[in-house]
Amino acid sequence: MRIECSARGRAITIAERRPPWNPDFGSEWSEVKVAQLRYAEGRAAWSLYCSDSNGRWWEYDELGPTKEVGPLLKEIDADPTGIFWG
After folding, report:
1. Which residues contact 44 (CB under 8 A, 6 or more apart)?
2. What ranges do the domains of the chain cover?
C-alpha cells in the first residue's frame, strides 16, 4: 500500500493506492481518495474535506480551518470519526 498526494490549483488530495491483488483483474493499482486539503487565499487558511461514497467532497466539520496543515494531517492520521480510513 502507498499513500500518495496530488495537487491541483489550491487543493491537495491524499489517496491510498494498492497494488493489484489478482492478475485476472488487470495490472492497475486501485485508488481510494482519503482526504482533501483546500487553501482559501482570502482567509489564508487550510480546510479539510472528506469524500462520500459518490466521490463528492464535503467539508469536515470536526475541525475548522487552520493556518498550518499540520493539525489537519494529524486529524486524518488519528481519524477519530472513522471517515478517512474506515
Report:
1. 67
2. 2-78
